[in-house]
Structure formats: C-alpha cells, structure tokens
Amino acid sequence: MEKIKVLIDCDTGIDDIVALAYALKTERLDVLGVTTVCGNLPVDITTYNTLNALNLMGRNELPLAKGAAKPLERELWDAAYIHGSNGLGGYEFAEKTSKQPEPQPAHEFLYNMLQAQPEPVTIIALAPLTNIALLLQQHPDAREKIQRIVFMGGSLRTGNPTPVATFNVLADPEAAKYVIATKVPFVMCSLDCTRGSFLTYEDLDKVRALHNPVADMVDKVTGFYLESTKAENTVDGQKKGVDIHDLCTVMYVTHPELFEGEHYFADVETKGELTTGFTLVDFEDNLRKPLEDKTVLFLKKVDREKYVEYFLQVLARYQESGR
Ligand code: BDR
Ligand code: CA
Predict the structure, then answer these.
(1) DSSP calls for 138-197
(2) Tens digits of per-residue pLDDT, 209-240?
(3) Helix and strand totals (H; E) in the chain
C-alpha cells in the first residue's frame, strides 16, 4: 500500500502526543515534517514536548518547525487545566533531546515542504489553525499544493470548553474562519465523532500491558487526562473511558472506511456575545449554498472497536528501546 504523505501541525498536548505515537509508527503514513503552535500551552512548551516526543519515538530525523506564539488577533486561551502545566499531565521525558527546530517559522517551513512535493499533500491539523491561516494568507498559491486539511474540531451538539465552541476553533476563531473560507478541502473530525472513539478502561489496560516506553508514556498521560476530563462524555455520571480527540483525527487519514460523514457548507462565528468559536455547519441546507461551497467533510461517527484495535496494533510495534 502506498503511504500517504502528511504534514502534522500540533500543540502537544496529551492527545497530540498519543496521536503522534500512532502517526509516526503506522505503515500507512509518510510524515514529512511536524510543526508546532500555541494552543494547549504556549508554543515553547508545545515545541519542547513535540521535539522530545520525536526523540522518544525514534524519529529525530524528522524536521520540526516552531510556529505562532499567539493567535491571529487574540490573546492565547490555553488548556493547561486539561493537559497540566507542562502539557503532558506531569509526564517527564527520561531522555531530553538536543534537537532544535528548523530556522524558519512553521508557515514558511510548511510552504517550502509543500512546494518541494510533486503532488498535493494532506495537512493534519491537531491544534488551532493559526499556522495554517498564516500559510494561506502569505502564500495563497500554497492552496494548490494542499490536498486537504484534516482538522480536529467542530461539533454538531455541544462544545468544549464553551457550550458551543470546540477548543481548536475557540483558541483562534479568525484563523479557522479564514482557512475554511479559502475552500481548501477541509475535514472536520468533530467532537461528536471523537467522543465516540473513547478508549475504555479495558483498552487502557491493554496499553499498559504492552510494556514499551511509548506505551508507558501513553499510559501515564492518559491517566492524567482521565481525571482532568472526568466531567466530559459521561453516561449517567459515569465515565466510559477517555477521548483521545487528536488520535481519532489521524485515524481518519489512515482508515477513512471507519468513519461516517458528509459534505456541508461551514463557517465560524467570530463576533458572538455567547457563541464565539461556534462552527456553523449547514446540516439541513438552510442556506442553499452551491455544491462548490460545501467544502467541509464533517465526520460524525467512527467504528470505535476497529479504531482501538488498529491503534493497539501500531503501539505494539514500538520496541523496548522505544524505537
Ligand atoms: C482538542 O483541543 C485540544 O485541547 C486537544 O489537544 C484537541 O486537539 C480537543 O477539543
Ligand atoms: Ca491538540
């Protein structure tokens, strides 16, 4: 099977690091490079975490570029209350890397990487869209080189951390609005979808039983995440497991057959008194938009059991050394 070439933009972050563990080991992806942005934590912390994640996962050769330290027009609203003050629920890397980011900022790095590829490339966006908006604002011709953007965010029902907005949109709504309006093919791996992809306590036991350094890291960070997100996605006040939103988003790229979704017109509220960061998705075609405006593939559902099976298979491929 031919590998799918991807660039990954992230704000590592507990679910980001679990998503990276999968993305960097699955045989289905050819990760060309990684970029970081402010989001869950300031960009210096997300960059430190991502550089050390590459080291832990034996992928030090991959280029990494550091991106925006601030949303396009706002101050950073971080998610340390969910991910812990170091972004990884207190997890510390046993070995610290000396690797440094590339000299260019993330959006310039992305542009150069895209230009160097003969065919358009998928961007997996696991964070606020600041870097991607800067890329498209400063290099409109980059659009032709992006096959699609697969983004974690948006929702059909409720949001998080506000009743209607999902974090990656809320943290930089102007960026999300701008990127969607360019009509670049855009996949929204919605909160509804990712909340249906939770890992149960039994699944987490299987992670623990793998006994390799990457699985051990996943075990530790998800332990924290279970606590910090315990009010979310409960049934009768009981938590069924833990939602690893960014992992679900990467899984769509490797296994789209597990997902259900449809194309719609979408936009983002940036000026709402109560609704800033809300992703408006025209589910019932009220706006009668032409087909060429329905550029957002909104993912609603995933086959959870297969998703977990594929994740565990890939995680088991890390050796004792973590490589
Ligand atoms: C998304 O927001 C971030 O906190 C997570 O890393 C994920 O990308 C979930 O809403
Ligand atoms: Ca993230």
Answers:
(1) H-GGGGGGEEEEEEE---SS--BBSSSBBHHHHTSHHHHHHHHHTT--EEEE-HHHHHTT
(2) 999 999 999 999 999 999 899 888 787 777 78
(3) 12, 14
CA–CA dist 221, 236 (Å, integer): 25
Q: Which residues in 251-280 are b (16+ Cβ under 10 Å) and which e?
A: bbbbbeebbebeebbbbbbbeeeeebbbbb
296-302 β-sheet, strand order: 64-66, 29-36, 4-10, 121-125, 146-152, 186-189, 296-302, 259-264
pLDDT at 320: 64
Torsion of CA 278, 180, 101, 253, to 10 degrees: 90
Tell which residue, 170, 100, 164, 81, has the closest CA to residue 128: 170
Ligand 1 pocket: which of 233, 246, 248 to mutate (most atoms <8 Å of CB)? 246
| Nearest partner of 67 among 135, 142, 152, 140, judged by Cα | 135
Q: Which residues have C-beta within 8 Å of that of residue 174, sequence separation ≥ 6? A: 71, 72, 73, 74, 133, 270
Which residue out of 9, 14, 15, 17 has the highest number of ligand 1 atoms within 8 Å of its CB and is therefore the one to mutate? Answer: 15
Residue having the nearest C-alpha atom to atom 2 of ligand 1: 167
Q: Do 225 and 87 contact (CB within 8 A), yes or no?
A: no
Distant-in-sequence, close-in-space partners of 260: CB < 8 Å, separation ≥ 6? 299, 300, 301, 302
Rounded distance from Cα 214 to ligand 1 centre (Å): 20
| Range 34-39 average pLDDT | 98
CA of 246 to the centre of ligand 1 (A): 7
pLDDT of 275 higher than 70? yes
Pocket of ligand 1 (CB under 6 A): 13, 15-16, 40, 79, 82, 126-127, 152, 160, 166-168, 245-246
Return the H-helix or E-strand segment holding 27.
none
Catalytic residue at 245? yes
- Tell me how far apart the alpha carbons of residues 121 and 321 are, in angstroms, rounded to a whole number: 31
